Amino acid sequence: MNLLLLEEADFIAADRVVLRDRRLVHMQDVHRAAVGDSLRVGRIGGLMGNAQLLRLEASEAELQVSFDQPPPAKLPLTLLLALPRPKMLRRVLQTVAAMGVPKVVLVNSYRVEKSFWQTPFLEPEAIREQLILGLEQARDTVLPEIVIEKRFKPFVEDRLPAMTEGTLGLIGHPGDYPACPRGLDEPVTLAIGPEGGWIPYEVDLLAKAGMQPVQLGARILRVETAVTALLARLF
Amino acid sequence: MNLLLLEEADFIAADRVVLRDRRLVHMQDVHRAAVGDSLRVGRIGGLMGNAQLLRLEASEAELQVSFDQPPPAKLPLTLLLALPRPKMLRRVLQTVAAMGVPKVVLVNSYRVEKSFWQTPFLEPEAIREQLILGLEQARDTVLPEIVIEKRFKPFVEDRLPAMTEGTLGLIGHPGDYPACPRGLDEPVTLAIGPEGGWIPYEVDLLAKAGMQPVQLGARILRVETAVTALLARLF
């Protein structure tokens, strides 16, 4: 945790917060904070700044806070991601939040196991928990938007074309395709497939929605690694 | 597992192997392989090719194998990595093997907790196990070399200068430094610090050994994410 993220409910006055949950435990056990210490804080969806620890007890901490710094810029990106297996989903959500992806569409694909859609990690609160961990890691305050699209074809045919409009649409896909471009400034819509990849029918449908396949080399990467590698290369 | 990696001990003839361990279980449970099926195989440290499943029983499988394809090229890189916490170490070892890093030096740093050096995950067999998982994921056969350097100063002063010679030496380090370069062809020695980063004394010593700090932006990434992001950007 490199940033203590504050929720609206934490505030007892405009410049005072009281913490009682895992953030208190983290201050006690990891930061080993003491009264008078200064900590970096951020207001969810808002500015970042500093806090001074006024009171630290076993069950709660009180901090005086001030905010003066905007969070880092997001990437100009919409990430279209075939739903990963539940354990990977949690890590990927942390990673995309940490790397500054503003919008993720979790979409079905032929190679996504049906059971993956039943995971409790897709509940809004569970998703938010992982995103918060990513923001705390990277020092950002703005939650990415996560959209869930359980049906591939209607999403790609009816809603994706409007998303890709005015952006460079790319499909991360192993094969004999152009290399993934580097260091872009323009907005991108990037589609990353499931383990085993998109099937040809899906690549065709994505292409009709304005996206083109690009590759990262012969090595087959886990989803989380592929997401990080593609983002680091694109921007 | 995108490649079935074969050890010398698996061979019962020049073109025959018998498998009994987790690879057998994987063929049965994940691949749901049947006699006659063809699978991608690789010989550890050698060529890749194809296998045909000749016999599949509960306790063992026999395959006929042939090899005709070299593994993918490695990156022109030596990675100098402050020892991560044990759980992260395992994932990082998989990641570096998957991404094609040929040599990793695990080194001490002021911010590496002493207890990390006691982990059983540093045993040679435990390291090898994670590297194999990374090679199986990425379809490669050549194990990276892992060097363990428990003392930072003698390593950096006495052995690092010879390693960095003829390479571009870079320190991944947050701060007011030049941006990490992109798309290099030349050999690189890259140092990635622990959670919390290298301390200034360590950066100075690394700089004296011929390395220069570069940054990836304001976001603070987990070690595994930082490794992937830096490699994807550099090469």
Automatic annotation (TrEMBL), chains A, B:
It catalyses: uridine(1498) in 16S rRNA + S-adenosyl-L-methionine = N(3)-methyluridine(1498) in 16S rRNA + S-adenosyl-L-homocysteine + H(+). Its main location: cytoplasm. GO terms for biological process: rRNA base methylation. This is Ribosomal RNA small subunit methyltransferase E. Specifically methylates the N3 position of the uracil ring of uridine 1498 (m3U1498) in 16S rRNA. Acts on the fully assembled 30S ribosomal subunit. Residues 73-234 form the Ribosomal RNA small subunit methyltransferase E methyltransferase domain. Keywords: Cytoplasm, Methyltransferase, rRNA processing, S-adenosyl-L-methionine, Transferase. It is an enzyme of class 2 (transferase). Belongs to the RNA methyltransferase RsmE family.
